[in-house]
Every structure is written in C-alpha cells, then in structure tokens.
Design a protein that fits this description.
This protein has 225 residues and is of the alpha/beta class. Helix content is 41%, strand content 20%.
C-alpha cells in the first residue's frame, strides 16, 4: 500500500500571498473595493459572499434561479443560481491564479527541494485542497512543478468537504500538512499525523490540535522519516 502525504495547496504548498494577489485581481475585475481585512477573509472564506453578491448585481442572477447546464461529460443538469454564482466566482479566480502563477515564484523558499527529499524516502504526495482541481493542476503546469502524484481538489461549484476529498485517496495517509484547522482536523480520524505550517492563513486553534507545528519547510525533514 502506498504511503501518502496529504498536503494543502493555498497557504501551504504555495505562498499565502499568491491567493491574496489573485483575490485582489478578482475584486478589480468585479469593480469592487478590496477589503482591508482580506487576509483574514481568505482564512475563513468570508470573501465568497462579497464576490457572489457583486456578480449577482452585475448579472442579475439570483440564488433561487434554476439554470440548465451541460456538463463536460455531456449530461444536462439543473443548477441553482447560487451554484452558478459560485462557478462564475471560481472561473474568475482561475484566470487570476493563472496570471499570478505566470508572474510570480509561487512556492515557499526551499519547499519543493524538501518535498523531493521526502519523496525519495518512498512517499507519494497528494494535494488535498478547497481550491478547484483545474486551478491547482494548471498552476503546477505553469510553474513547471512535477513532483505531485495526486490532486484531489474542488469542482467548479465547490461541493466537496475536506473529509470527502481525503476519503478519495487510495493508500495509507501517513501525514496531513496544512495551514488551517479544516486542513488538519480530519487527520486523527484517518490515524495520520498532522503538521501545521505557520506560513499560511491560520484560522485559530491549529497549534493545539496539530501533532507538529513548523515555521520553515526544512523542519519537515525532522518529522517525516
């Protein structure tokens, strides 16, 4: 059975300021004032409501509408207006994140090199994230990052919980690495060790719950043997 390390994407595998920059770009596209507390809003996803409210104002799409949608697998489904607003919001985020990935070095210093060393010990790396899967995959391609074995991310309407994504993993999850409480909470149920990274977007309470807390990527080598 494969030994898996599950790692969060935004704020863990990539620098926290990357999502901040992309979120600012999205606010600009939507002609909305950038909130002064954006960093905290990113931690608990409070910015979602602001974005969807503005998209609704600009398009007149209402949450309770029923809208026909043809999926990529050629199935016709019916989405709510709320789901369509979420999809438009994440489409704009996709565009902005790809732009930032082209413009910036998205990874924390030395993290990729550290993860390569960890992989050499026989581990597989799986991204588990509340970010859309196509956004993650696209950014890894833009940044020429090839060390990730599996990606378990969101769909365009953000319908998965972190626990549901983790349950998709085939293999034994040995470690869960993340920057938020929601990233590391499922670790105990999975009988995995949790590692809280302090360079991301914490929501509070992570250090009390996590098995390990680190400030720099190199500390991972002291934990993962």
């Amino acid at each position: 059975m494969e030994k898996i390390i599950a790692i969060d994407f935004s704020g863990t595998l990539i620098k926290p300021e990357i999502a901040e920059l992309a979120s600012k770009k999205r606010f600009q596209i939507l002609q909305t004032e950038i909130p002064k507390n954006l960093k905290q809003m990113l931690a608990d996803n409070k910015h979602y409501d602001l974005n969807k409210e503005q998209i609704s104002r600009l398009t007149n799409i209402k949450k309770n509408m029923k809208i026909k949608y043809n999926t990529n697998s050629k199935q016709q489904v019916e989405l709510t207006g709320e789901q369509i607003l979420t999809q438009i919001m994440t489409n704009l985020f996709q565009f902005a994140m790809y732009q930032v990935a082209k413009e910036k070095d998205i990874f924390p210093k030395n993290l990729i090199e550290i993860l390569k060393k960890i992989k050499s010990k026989g581990y597989k790396l799986a991204i588990v994230s509340g970010i859309r899967e196509d956004i993650i995959s696209g950014m890894l391609n833009i940044s020429n990052c090839t060390i990730i074995d599996y990606i378990f991310g969101q769909n365009p309407i953000l319908s998965y919980s972190n626990k549901e994504l983790l349950n998709k993993i085939k293999g034994k999850i040995e470690y869960v690495i993340g920057d938020k409480l929601s990233d590391i909470q499922p670790a105990k149920e999975l009988k995995a060790k949790s590692i809280f990274v302090k360079w991301g977007h914490p929501t509070g309470g992570e250090e009390k719950l996590a098995d390990f807390t680190i400030k720099k990527p190199k500390e991972l080598l002291e934990i993962i043997k």
